[in-house]
Amino acid sequence: MNLTRRALTAAAAALAMMMAGTWALAQERLDVVATTGMIADAAQTVGGDLVEVRALMGPGVDPHAYRQTRTDIVATANADLVLWNGLYLEAQMEEFLIDLGQDRAVVPVAEGVPENLLIGSEDYDGRYDPHLWMNPNLWSRVVLNVRDALIEAHPEGEATFAANADAYLETLRELALYTTDVLSSVPAESRILLTSHDAFNYFGNAYGFEVIGIQGISTESEAGLQRIAELVDLLIARDIRAVFVETSVSDRNIRALVEGARAEGHKVVIGGELYSDAMGEPGTYEGTYVGMIDSNATTIAGALGGEAPDTGMQGLLN
User: Fold this and answer.
1) Are 41 and 85 in contact (CB under 8 A)?
2) Angle at 58 between CA 54 and CA 64, to 5 degrees
């Protein structure tokens, strides 16, 4: 009986120690809030077990139009570190985030990229296109900024953050090689990417594609009937046979374009769905940055006459 009691006491003590250790680990983790899924993915990959990361914007969410909720305000106010893209991507949140940064660690990670590598915005004078993640080589620079922000917020984790960042950058180099390879297989005359809005300019620069968006860089701009008519004429004149929808933007304008071309006797198909301003569902390959870009490159190459494996770079695409 005494032996049983002693065993139970020892087991309870061991359980208490384990729970205390778990609690201590949770307490030691850096609480990070990121605006977009792409930034959250970078923070989680670089931060590893030393961070707890939350993304404010999930799959299918348009960051151009997103406004902070009460829950977001509480989460960012309590976070150890807030990471946002900047470059006017989170247009409706910018003032809130700048104000928050007066007394909190709030870092616009894309704004640390040298200006000579940025594309100017036609929609907003003096601003730049914020969609850097469309070029893995440029996004690598943002990952370095994420690493540095984590180190600044949690110096004790510097070795871990540096090692994780190095490993992730190697994966991004492999991704850049894959995307270059499959997209270079698209015939030169077919390298025209027409989508819902101008999210793919860095993609176009990196891979030699002409990019046409029905809307401008921000989805807040409206595409009128005249714009649709002009693009129908363009589809016919240049014999463009495939256009693309985006997961975070309504497909209304793209479908109007397809119907307009069909009315003129020109057949255009929707070549696939692209991830522009948001990643796929959490827990899926497309719900990671690497999977997002792999999916885009594979979809575009396949739809425009190039050669790409159906399952992508790592054989993980559905």
Assistant:
1) no
2) 110
- Give me the chain's average pLDDT, please: 91
Q: How many CA atoms lie less than 13 Å away from 74 in the CB half-sphere?
A: 3
Range of the domain at 247: 181-303
User: What CATH number is associated with residue 240?
Assistant: 3.40.50.1980
How much is the pTM?
0.89
Same-domain check for residues 213 and 285: yes
Q: Is 234 a member of any domain? A: yes
Strand partners, 34: 55, 83
In a domain, 28, yes or no: yes
Query: Alpha-carbon dihedral of residues 214, 218, 224, 229, nearest 10 degrees?
Result: -10
Dihedral sign computed on CA atoms, order 41, 43, 44, 46: positive
Angle, alpha carbons 260-261-265 (nearest 5°): 120
Q: Any bridge partners for residue 246, and if so which?
A: 274
Report if residue 57 sits inside a domain: yes
Q: Is the C-alpha dihedral spanning 126, 130, 131, 135 positive or negative?
A: positive
pLDDT recorded at residue 17? 44
Same domain, 61 and 94: yes
Q: Measured between alpha carbons, how far is 302 from 308 in angstroms, rounded to an integer?
A: 6
Last residue of a domain, one of 122, 157, 192: 157
- Comparing CA positions, the residue from 282, 279, 43, 53 lying closest to residue 143 is 43
One domain for residues 185 and 288: yes
Q: pLDDT tens across 178-231, in order?
A: 999 999 999 999 999 999 988 999 999 999 999 999 986 555 555 578 899 999
Query: What SS3 state is found at 276?
Result: coil
**How far is residue 245's CA from residue 131's CA, in Å, rounded to a whole number?**
17
